[in-house]
Structure formats: structure tokens, C-alpha cells
Amino acid sequence: MTSTQRPPADDRAEAESAQAAALHTGTSNLRTLVTRNVRQSGIYVAFVVIVALFAILTDGVLLSPGNITNIVLQYSYILVLAIGMVIVIIAGHIDLSVGSVVALTGAVSAVLVIQQGYAWWIGIVAALLVGVAVGAWQGFWVAYVGIPAFIVTLAGMLLFRGLTLQVLDNISLSPFPSEYQRVASGFLNGLFGGQGYDAFTLFIGAFAVAGYAVSGFRTRVARIRYRQPVESFPLFVARVLAVGAVIMYFAWQLAHARGLPIVLIILGVLVITYAVVTKRTVFGRQVYAIGGNLSAALLSGVRVRTVNFWIFVNMGFLSAVAGVIYSSRSNGAQPAAGTMFELDAIAAAFIGGAAVTGGVGTVVGAMVGGLIMAVMSNGMQLMGVDQSVQSVVKGLVLMLAVAFDIWNKRRGGAAR
Amino acid sequence: MSDTILEMRGITKTFPGVTALRDVSLVVRRGEIHAICGENGAGKSTLMKVLSGVHPAGSYDGDIVLGGEPARFHGIRDSEAVGVVIIHQELALVPHLSVAENVFLGNERRGRGGLIDWNRANAEAAALLASVGLDENPVTPVAQLGVGKQQLVEIAKALSKEVRLLILDEPTAALNDTDSAHLLDLLRRLRDRGITCILISHKLGEVTSIADAITVLRDGRTVETLRTSDGEATQERIIRGMVGRDLESFYPDRVSAPGEEVLRLEDWTVWHPSQDRKVVDGVSLAVRAGEVVGIAGLMGAGRTELAMSVFGRSYGRDVSGRLYVRGREVRARSVSEAIGNGIAYATEDRKKYGLNLIEDVRRNVSAAALRKLASRGWVDGNEEIRVAEESRSYLGIRAPSVMTSVGTLSGGNQQKVVLAKWLFADPDVLILDEPTRGIDVGAKYEIYTIINRLVAAGKGVLVISSELPELLGVCDRIYTLAAGRLTGELPVGAATQENLMALMTKEGAA
């Protein structure tokens, strides 16, 4: 088989015809497109419904500029954790220790910056290094010793919580210098001026929309060149317009509040990076292969141990990022910081379509899952719903999301 | 002594799409050792599952008469209640429980208040162990015993149930020669105590030496029942009965033109990962470019173990011996090293070990050689699609698109995806383990055609198969394996099902 031969890349005519074709080829059969991605699209539909529901229940307060900004600031660290967690879950593991790691990394940073008086960035670097070291520790036990991640990270949950208490000597530390606080509470505002709104935020929003449209079109052209099915052109345009409208609305609301939160930039960079890493790199694909069928991955030459190790190192790194953001937002370090964060991150991944058995899930899905949790918590807080009821509702939503996943899979199996 | 304890009449058992047993009859006399012989898939195990109630009454046609009474079992408890006990090839012992606990599992010796009377249980277990010649303390955990002794514990367990008819499925397959001899001795003693035995075995030497009668099955039918007392139960006769069918002519023609040697094994020895025995013992073989070489062997002969140990030591421990690819000695200590050195291995169980069923055709095809599609760790998704499309048309994979999940494909098409994966890795030698298991006749022909195209392109192919006609149909040369040792090598012109079977059932071969 002459499989290494590339398609005629210098064939300009073909490339141009593919571009021309991109404008009118494709299927407009919405049903096949939706059913093909029912697991993913179900989440988006649920998200829209939940946002609409709480927007109505809170008389529009949910979508007010100030509140949207609040949601971003309040849940950013959970979303950062969910990025790492969904990768762990896709590979068929779990990580129960992230809450403790958030506390430990924040504590290390606080001790260095607040107690010892080092520069703010030294605290951040130290926190990230501690996170990576924690990840390497857990990755070693999971990957090379073969202890189930559930046990390793359960032990880690206790271990790193204990170390946090040791590092902090059982007391809270605060406050951080203002540079450190800006990580989670700072805004980029007024760079391009604007009257009553921040033009820079709108510019970034427009830039994101343009990027989405261009990369979507390029994917479409490439797919047509490789004779793959694509959606019809009007449908493509409708999708870009819908996503663009949502982004621009979001940017508009932020621009009317305090501008672009720095933490949103961090989150955006991480989401895009990890979405691409999971989809487009050898590493990302091997994560899916391990979770989908461990034996088949082993017998296909995947270095399962190495991949598992780096999955946990990465989780440790992202926990540290979340630790920095959280300590910055709370302006200090507390012994009990980050308690239950692991559960929110795990819930975000599962609500976002990750499969309990591994092999399935996406970073973007986990983000939407995390936002569903965020909007629900925020909406219920705005409505003054009791904490106990909030907990019940979130528990039920998680249950239903996984039930939907299993039901969906069983239906898929029956169709075979 | 010569009255009938068991008569099975006209047993027919069908599974969806397959008839496993067709009008099978079996008559077993009281107090005899009755052996059942047949190739893999001939229906031996299915017949025993019908007898023991694993396949409940009503799921098959035909009658079972046990000790003069018609028997209709709805589960294994029913059959055990009347003294029919089956000991499966895979031992059903709980490793961390003691010998006594295992012996009385599900049949506990209760004392006052429904609590287990351990003194009584241990004492009775000790007596049972003595009767099977096992000198072990009943409180020893089973995991501390070797396989041979575990087998004896199983028999003690059967005796505790007041067994009348004991069924042993391949009891000596995992045993070494000493343990086998010991076990066969025990069977003779049990016979003297009036216990009837049905013995399923691939080892014909063992069968002819111990059995009073031998029933041969082939393709789900009874061929004949031979009695040792009549002197007609020779190994040759049994083999003829086991394989006596026509070689179907659905193998595509191929001109054989072997070239240079692509794979060579010297003195390859592999130990069982947890037991103290050699699974592959001093095997030397060679495969040349443009050649299809077969490995014939019955279950437990070490075929898959041999292949997997070659493929980056995926099986076994203390692997020793030398491995050459294209004349160069290679040390393939991991699967990725094996692939890098030009070895590919398509497993016998594609769903469990070969494919990621929740992923699509595209991602399965690229799985073994993803790096060929990547530069600096970034996968070219469009190239991946092109490669998958190319394999789809080259191998004739019938899937709506390369984005179709492989879990939805038929067995034959799944197997083609497995082949596509290994073709994309571009190996020098391809080891195919049961390449046509569980796929229909038409797809088999296509798989054979693909094999032919591979060797025409200069690759060496090693085929492991339980189906002798398949090996005779596609191979240039066939090695036979028995109990981990090579017992013969025949060019296809000189090979027949009979002489292969004789080599495959040879014991203690040097």
C-alpha cells in the first residue's frame, strides 16, 4: 500500500475548486448532524435551556453585566480544574486530590510572598513547581506501580491537605500584594478607550469570532478536499453567526461592567490549548486510546505508562494554576481552601459528556458542564435558594447527566 | 458393571446463526472412563454444558436419560443435586479462601444456629483430600497450591457432593507430566470406587491409555464411539474421525515465491506469568518474505503465547531466545520496539485486544502508527482521513464512512480494520492470530485474498489457526506445536489434516 504518498499538494486548481465547493457543498440534513453528535449537542441544548430558565427566574439579573463578570471570576478555577480532570477521566482514571492540591499550592505561594516577602511572581512559579511535583508523585504511583488512581488520589487528598496545614502552621495568611491579586480580580480596561464601555473587550470578542469563523472555514475546505461530509453552507453560516452572536453578547456585557477579566484570558488560552492538544496531538489521541481500550492501546504500541504519568503531571500543573487563581481571588491562603473542588471538577467533566468508562469526553464539553453547574449555583444564589436545596439540585443534575450518558450508550448498543 | 448410567439422545443445540450440536448421541456405561475427542469447536464443551444444565432444558432439543430417569436440568444446581459434577478447564476456585472453604463453597457444613461448623468442615475436607491423595492442610489458601494440586482440590470438591458422574474438561492441559500422571492415576482409582468419568482431552496418548470408551465429535455431530476393549481405539482411528471432512475449496490461488528470511526465532522459551511451567519451550522457526507460514496447535499448545511473547514480550516472563528480523538480531522488549522493528501482531480477540470499539474507523486505522501522521507530536487529521479512506477502499471495508464507529461493523469488517491498522504500520512480518475466527465465509475469502496480496508485496505472514483446512488452504509451510514445543514442520504439499493432528497431539515431544 502506498500510503505515505501525499495528495497533490501543489495542485492549486484542486485547492481552489475545494474552496469554491466549500460555498455550496454539504448536507443540510439537520437531523443526521444532530443525531451524530447527540451526546455533545445534548449538553449545549441543556446549557441554553438552563441559562434561559434562570434568566427568567431571576428577572434577567443572571445575564446582567455585573453578574456575568461575577460568574467568570467565581468559577474560573473550577473550569481550570475541569480541563485537567476531563483528560484524567478520558484515560479512565479519576483524581480526588485536586482540592487539596489547590490548597497546598496556594499555601506555598502565600508563605513565600506574604510571610517571606518574596516577589509576587516567585510565589506563582513556586506554586506551579509544587503542582508539577505533586502530579509527578501521583503519576508515578498510578503509572509505574499500578495502583488505581482512585486510591492514589484518595491518599493524596489526605496527604496534601495535611501538608497544607503543615505549611500554613494551621493559620490563614493574607493579604497578597496588589499585583498578585490582579491575577484573579484584575481587568484589562480602557486600553482602546470607549464611552461607557470598554472597546478592548469588544475588540477581543470580535477577534475571537473572526478566529472561529476562519478556522471553521479552513476545516471545511480541507474536509471537502478530502471528500468528507460537511454541513451545508447556509447551515455553516448560521452556526458561525449563532456562536458569534453569543460571544459578542458576552463581550458586550463584560465591556459594560469592568472590562476583560485577566482570569478569563488565562482560561481562554488554557481551553484553546488543551482543546487542540486533546484533539490534534499524538499525546491527546493516546489518552483517548488508553481510555477506549487499554489492551488494544498496549498492543498498538502506545506507551501507556508514560502517557498516564504525564496525564497526572498535567493535572498537578493545572491544579496549581487553579491554586494560584483561588489564592489570588480569596487574597490569601486558608487551611480549608479548595475543599470539595474535586467534586465540582469531576461533575463538570461528566455533565460535559465524559463517559464513566473512559475513552469519551472533550475539553469544551467539560467547560460547558462546568458552566452549567456555575449558572445553576449562581442562579439559585440570586434567587436566595437555601444552600441545602442547591446541593440537592446539583446532585440530581449530575445523576441525570450520567444516566443520560448510559441510556444513550445502551441505545447506541441496541442499534448495533 | 455394564449397565448404562447416561444416555443423551438426538441433542441439537443452536446459537444465533450457528448450529453447535446436531443430533448428537452419547451413551456412557456405569463405572467407565469415557473420553470425548474432537477439534476446537467440534462441540465437546457445548455438549457438556447441555449435560450439566449450563444450557438449561428447553434451550436444546433431544433427551437426557440419567440412571434410567429422564433428566431436565435448569441450572448447575439441578445437575449437581443428582450427582453430575463438571470441572471446567478454567478452575473455579477462589484463590484467597482455604482449601476447606473452597471444597464446601455453596455447600457449607452448618452446625448449630446455622453457623458454619469449621471443625467439622476442616475434618471432612481432610478426609476428602486424603481420598484424592493430596497431602495438604485444609486451612491452606488455595492460591498457595500449584495448578496440579488445585485440580485435585476441584475433584475433592466434586466428591464432597456425592458425585456419580464426574465431567473433566481438559484437566491435564495446564499440568506438567508428573501432575498429569498423578491425576490420571486418581481417575483410575475413582473408577474402581464406582464413579463414572467423562474426560475431554486433546492428548490422544492419554486418552487411549486411560479411557474405556471414546466418542469422537466433529462439526457438532457424533462420528463414532470406540471401545478400547475391542482394540479399535487407536490414535490413527481417532484422528481420522476428528478431521475427516473435505477440504473446502474456497481458498484463493496464489503463486508461492519465498524470498529472503524476514523472521527467525531461535530457542524461544517463555514461562507462564504466574505458574512454574514453560508455556513455550525451545521453539525455533523461520518465516521468509513472500511466504505464509502456519502454526497448528490445539488449545493450550502455546500458539498465542508464542506470538505475543515475540510481539514485544506482551506475554509471559523470563522470555529467552534470539529473535531476528531480516537477518538482524533485535531486542523487542516492548510493543513499540516490536512495531519499530517491523513486527505486527493481530490478536485472536479483536474486540477485547485489537480495536477501540467506541472510536471510528479512522482512529483505529492510525492507532499503531500515529507517529507517521504526525510531525513534532501534531497529528495531521486530514492525512489521517486520507489514509483511512485509502485502507477502506484497498481492503474493501464496508462502512458508511471512515467516521463510523467500529463497534457497529460486522466481524469481517472489524477484522479488516485490524488488518488496515497493521498495514499502515508497514511491518516486515505480520502475525495473524485466528484471522478468520467468528466471521462468515464470504469475509473469510476476502481476508485470504488480503493475505495473498500482502505476501505478494514481499511481507512474511505467520498464521495461527485452529482450523486445519484454513492452514492447508493458505499456507506454504506449517509448523505444529504441542504443549509449547515444536513437534513438526511440513511443507503444505506433504501436510494432511491427519498427519498434522497426529503431530499436534504428540506428547512429551523432544
General description of the model:
- The complex is a heterodimer of chains A (416) and B (510).
- Chain A has 416 residues and is mainly alpha-helical.
- Chain A has one domain (30-189, 258-414): ABC transporter involved in vitamin B12 uptake, BtuC.
- Chain A is 74% helix and 1% strand.
- Chain A has a two-stranded antiparallel ribbon with strand order 1-2.
- In chain A, α4 crosses α10, α5 (98-115) crosses α14 (304-329) and α12 (282-292) packs across α14 (304-329).
- Residues 1-10 and 412-416 of chain A have low confidence and may be disordered.
- The two termini of chain B are 40 Å apart.
- Chain B contains 17 helices and 22 strands.
- Chain B is 33% helix and 26% strand.
- In chain B, the strands form 5 sheets. A 6-stranded mixed sheet of chain B has the order 6-7-8-3-9-10, sandwiched between helices.
- Chain B has 2 domains: 4-243, Rossmann fold (3-Layer(aba) Sandwich); 261-504, Rossmann fold (3-Layer(aba) Sandwich), CATH 3.40.50.300.
- The interface between A and B is large, with 38 and 49 residues.
